[in-house]
């Protein structure tokens, strides 16, 4: 039997720490079922009490809902409730009753502790069993234990992961400690397999045992992953991998089978087979194995191939009739063993054969141990070959040699890009396909044709190459040549050249479609004919007419295909169109032009969710006999909702719901008409609503009940015209308890188009941005205007959009014109820097990672990618639209640096020394110029940070400094010491800013105040 939950798991009160531990069973008061339509008719603005002002002390407790999933029968909802920082819960909730089970998940709200590092930890989602009897999820140690381990800094001290298996019948939780991954069959209930963490394997392939198992950690979606060696030893100078213990548990009886030394494993979708590979200290026990699963339990181990060597990349076909894997067993005696590709047919007595061996490969090719799969119909195996790995040159071998990078004008990639991509280049591989029917295989990709996509049967492949346009792509948009490959013969047919946008192969491989010359084109693989599918249409555009950079407008995109490649569905700005790829049938607007007439944008919705966790067809293929679910967004009012439409009906789309909210993507139960969807507004957190219809939903979560304790602002749409008379929209966020007779300070922040966020919830958080929720709670009006751009004049475009908007709001009478500040990050930082050179309107400005001098930035490098910044200005976001030599004055006129003497606004600049997007020296150039002219300026440089601070301490620090800076300049509060005296370098690390309450003088009753 399984052991008790580890002491590290924080349990609900009064729960026994035994296997029979039960989670908190709470009866949630739900009241009468409220129709969504009735809820939507209520006034969105609600009475705001005095409320506490939001401070940094409140950020960590704000929770998010992650990994939402429905059981197949729709009776249960599961998700993780995760605080910004701290311990979270797995919540399992009845969709129709009031039953709710909670299991502590441990420290899932983990902030990033290192600068410029990848994003923080995200726990994998919970997974329901196919029969809906249990839900399983990984759990972790508490935050306190992680902090103790971090201080200890020993690998042995790191807290282990556990697995929680929750019985939906009674809430009973089975907790298994020390796990790595877990899996359940996608189309059968009754089984779960989990791999124990390192050190829990017996170290040899002994007989099956029924000892207490450890559990395997789930990867996202419950997909098992290979183990990179829990322990290693060296024999004969070679690194030896060893596996861990796999426990296979029959959920109904609790019977368990332990299998030692497992490295990878997978269930067949049907639950009839379990396959796994092993690596043992006794290498003769290594192998690839299967076991049959059935009502009588788990069968005996059957070896597909065993003995000395490595076994990897195990995979089933969709019909679960065969398995493929790779192994170097046949070459294991070599100093550097080479892999072979194997196929095994599953039966009472499985048979295994080698498909590709080293003898069948070219001398400069090896078979890769990654990327093995079957085609959809199981007729072919897709695998990869690779050249021998090019090892790095040891640094000590160059001690007395010249070390340099050579930049050559013929290089298609600059040296910084080559440096970043060196690991990829050394480990590059090429896609190949083995036809099981003919016994022949073909390498599909190479250095000249780096990309292919296969049809469902693997007989056709779409080959795309950008090699002929690689130099052009350094400065322009790049392009591709497109070919169709016969994977059986290698015959290659040219489809199209100089294609700017993505070409797509139809699911059955009959057609290739792509966008060019403002229309959709299709190539028929059978006839070799190319057809312009939209040439006869007038008054409709399929590229983005709202495109505002000096480059080719992108298409709105492909929505889906219908079965048998009969139709392809594409988008215009507002509507969905059906095109016949053969060109025989005329184009049809599926949504009856309702979108265009009403300014409502329709898009297909894939209600994947739970279904996506089980094999159920491709999201890109729709059944024309079934109704289509469409999301809807009104780009004038910003309301959203859902419509229903049919391909086989000539009727307008049926409205389900439209409301003053932002709806998330709905999840539908696989076997029931039950939906789960989030809805949000500026004042309403995106909690989950469930129901059998999208217009009759019931709220079943309450992630942040503490919100009602705080002073919360409101949001409203605001309209004005820019300096050229172009109508614009923006959002005005007003403070809690807004009084139109008062004069408030106002902050203006922007990027490009932000008005679509009218109904977006913005959780309190500290970063290098003006958070409307936080600042509105602290007594500011916040304005986020849209900007209309004119190519060649990005700075003036921002000025002519923002200033008239600010003037229009000031004219309303509730903003003090002498207390208006602006701020933005990146592109918003540049625009803010430009604006303050042109007007004295603003009393303070935050400039996050601004470009100050386009002439010097033009020739720089985007260090995060290694690419040149030239394209940014000639064709991209900076919107100059010409080279520096063709239009030098445009670069100068749009550069804030050349207008620094005009600036009267105090500025706070953030420019980080590891910024990979905007050159760090841009902020320095601006600061030096400001200092040279005696302007009030402060520059914060976070060491080792990139474009946006990722280390949480740095995020909170810039948030505090921004709040202090704006409070001093817009509220008249005393300036902090760092503004008055600076921080000498010798005090670096000693002077740590204390948390500060950004509210003005008075605090609300009950508010926690923090030291200055």
Short description:
The chain is mainly β. 13% of the residues lie in helices and 33% in strands.
Please tag this protein with its features:
1012 residues; mainly beta; Rossmann fold; eleven-stranded antiparallel beta sheet; eight-stranded mixed beta sheet; 59 strands; disordered C terminus; Serine_Prot_S9B/DPPIV
Instruction: State the total count of DSSP E strands.
Output: 59
Instruction: Just give the CATH class of the domain at 710-970.
Output: Alpha Beta
User: What is the CATH T-level topology of the domain at 710-970?
Assistant: Rossmann fold
Which architecture of the domain at 710-970 would the CATH scheme give at its second level? 3-Layer(aba) Sandwich
What are the low-pLDDT stretches, counting only 5+ consecutive residues below 50? 1-49, 200-237, 609-619, 995-1012
Percent of residues in β-strands? 25-35%
Mean pLDDT score, rounded?
88
Helix content: 10-25%
What summary fits the major beta sheet? 11 strands, antiparallel
Overall geometric form: globular
CATH superfamily of the domain at 710-970: Alpha/Beta hydrolase fold, catalytic domain
Terminal residue distance = 56 Å
Number of helices: 16
Backbone structural class: mainly beta
Pfam families: Peptidase_S9 (PF00326)
Domain Peptidase S9 prolyl oligopeptidase catalytic: 775-972
InterPro entries: AB_hydrolase_fold (IPR029058), Peptidase_S9_cat (IPR001375), Serine_Prot_S9B/DPPIV (IPR050278)
Organism: Gemmatirosa kalamazoonensis
């Amino acid at each position: 039997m399984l052991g008790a939950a580890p002491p590290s798991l924080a349990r609900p009160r009064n729960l026994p720490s035994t296997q029979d531990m039960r989670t908190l069973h709470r009866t949630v008061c739900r009241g009468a079922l409220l129709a969504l339509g009735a809820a939507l008719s209520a006034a969105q603005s609600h009475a705001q009490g005095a409320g506490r002002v939001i401070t940094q002390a409140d950020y960590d407790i704000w929770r998010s809902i992650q990994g939402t999933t429905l059981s197949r029968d729709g009776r249960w909802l599961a998700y993780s409730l995760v605080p910004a920082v701290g311990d979270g819960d797995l919540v399992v909730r009845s969709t129709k009753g009031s039953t709710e089970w909670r299991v502590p998940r441990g420290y899932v709200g983990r902030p990033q502790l290192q600068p410029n590092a990848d994003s923080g930890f995200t726990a994998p989602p919970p997974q329901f069993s196919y029969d809906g009897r249990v839900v399983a999820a990984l759990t972790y140690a508490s935050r306190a234990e992680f902090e103790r381990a971090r201080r200890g800094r020993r690998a042995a001290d790191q807290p282990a992961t556990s697995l929680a298996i929750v019985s939906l019948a009674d809430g009973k939780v089975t907790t298994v400690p020390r796990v790595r991954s877990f899996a359940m069959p996608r189309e059968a209930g009754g089984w779960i397999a989990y791999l124990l963490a390192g050190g829990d394997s017996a170290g040899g392939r002994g007989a099956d045992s029924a000892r207490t198992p450890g559990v395997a950690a789930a990867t996202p979606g419950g997909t098992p992953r290979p183990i990179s060696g829990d322990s290693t030893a060296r024999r004969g100078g070679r690194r030896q991998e060893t596996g861990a213990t796999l426990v296979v548990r029959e959920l109904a009886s609790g019977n368990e089978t332990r299998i030692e030394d497992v490295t990878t494993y997978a269930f067949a979708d049907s639950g009839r087979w379990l396959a796994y590979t092993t690596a043992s200290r006794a290498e003769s026990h290594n192998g690839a194995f299967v076991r049959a699963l059935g009502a009588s339990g788990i069968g005996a181990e059957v070896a597909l191939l065993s003995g000395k060597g490595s076994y990897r990349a195990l995979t089933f076909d969709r019909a679960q009739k065969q398995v493929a894997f790779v192994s170097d067993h046949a070459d294991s005696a070599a100093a550097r063993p080479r892999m072979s590709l194997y196929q095994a047919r599953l039966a009472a007595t499985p048979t295994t054969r080698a498909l590709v061996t080293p003898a069948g490969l070219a001398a400069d090719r090896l078979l890769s141990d990654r990327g093995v799969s079957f085609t959809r119909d199981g007729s072919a195996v897709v695998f990869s070959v690779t050249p021998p790995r090019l090892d790095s040159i040891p640094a000590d071998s160059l001690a007395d040699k010249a070390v340099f990078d050579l930049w050559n004008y013929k290089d298609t990639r600059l040296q910084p890009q080559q440096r970043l991509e060196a690991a990829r280049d050394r480990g590059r591989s090429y896609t190949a396909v083995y036809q099981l029917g003919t016994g022949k295989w073909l390498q599909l990709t190479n250095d000249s044709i780096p990309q292919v996509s296969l049809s469902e049967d693997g007989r056709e492949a779409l080959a795309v190459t950008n090699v002929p346009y690689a130099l052009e792509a350094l400065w322009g948009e790049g392009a591709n040549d497109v070919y169709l490959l016969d994977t059986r013969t290698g015959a290659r047919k040219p489809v199209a050249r100089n294609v700017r946008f993505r070409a797509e192969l139809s699911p059955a491989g009959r057609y290739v479609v792509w966008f060019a010359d403002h229309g959709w084109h299709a190539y028929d693989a059978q006839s070799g004919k190319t057809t312009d599918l939209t040439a006869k249409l007038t008054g409709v555009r399929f590229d983005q007419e709202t495109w505002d950079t000096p480059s080719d407008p992108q298409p709105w995109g492909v929505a889906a295909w219908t079965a048998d490649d009969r139709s392809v569905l594409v988008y215009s700005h507002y509507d969905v169109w059906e095109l016949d790829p053969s060109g025989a049938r005329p184009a049809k607007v599926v949504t009856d032009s309702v979108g265009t007439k009403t300014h409502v944008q329709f898009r297909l919705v894939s209600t994947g969710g739970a279904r996506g966790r089980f094999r159920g067809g491709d999201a890109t293929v729709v059944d024309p006999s079934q109704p289509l679910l469409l999301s809807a967004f009104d780009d004038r009012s910003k309301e959203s909702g859902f419509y229903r439409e049919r391909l086989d009906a000539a009727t307008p789309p049926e409205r389900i719901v439209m409301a003053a909210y932002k709806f998330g993507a709905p999840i539908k139960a696989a076997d029931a008409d039950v939906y789960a969807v989030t809805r949000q507004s500026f004042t309403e957190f995106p909690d989950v609503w469930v129901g059998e219809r999208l217009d009759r939903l019931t709220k079943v979560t309450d992630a942040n009940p503490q919100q009602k304790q705080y002073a919360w602002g409101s949001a409203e749409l605001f309209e004005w015209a820019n300096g050229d008379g172009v109508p614009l929209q923006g959002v005005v966020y007003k403070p809690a308890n807004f009084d139109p007779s008062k004069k408030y300070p106002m902050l203006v922040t922007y990027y490009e188009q932000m008005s679509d966020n009218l109904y977006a919830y913005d959780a309190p958080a500290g970063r290098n941005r003006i958070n409307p929720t936080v600042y509105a709670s602290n007594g500011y009006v916040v304005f986020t205007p849209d900007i209309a751009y004119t190519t060649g004049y990005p700075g003036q475009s921002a000025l002519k959009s923002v200033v008239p908007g600010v003037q229009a709001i000031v004219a309303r009478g509730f903003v003090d014109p002498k207390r208006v500040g602006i701020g933005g990050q990146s592109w918003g930082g540049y625009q803010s820097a430009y604006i303050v050179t042109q007007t004295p309107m603003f009393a303070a400005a935050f400039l996050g990672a601004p470009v100050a001098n386009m002439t010097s930035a033009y020739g720089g490098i985007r260090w995060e990618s290694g690419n040149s910044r030239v394209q940014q200005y000639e064709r991209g976001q900076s919107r100059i639209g010409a080279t520096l030599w063709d239009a030098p004055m445009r670069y100068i006129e749009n550069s804030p640096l050349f207008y620094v003497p005009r600036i009267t606004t105090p500025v706070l600049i953030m420019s980080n020394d590891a910024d990979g997007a905007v050159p760090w020296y841009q902020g320095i150039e601006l600061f030096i110029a400001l200092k040279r002219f005696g302007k009030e300026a402060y520059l914060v440089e976070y060491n080792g940070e990139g474009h946006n601070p990722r280390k949480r301490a740095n995020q909170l620090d810039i948030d505090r400094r921004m709040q202090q800076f704006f409070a001093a300049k817009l509220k008249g509060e005393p300036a902090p010491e760092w503004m008055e005296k600076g921080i000498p370098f010798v005090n670096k690390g000693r002077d740590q800013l204390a948390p500060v309450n950004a509210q003005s003088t008075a605090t609300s009753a009950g508010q926690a105040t923090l030291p200055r």
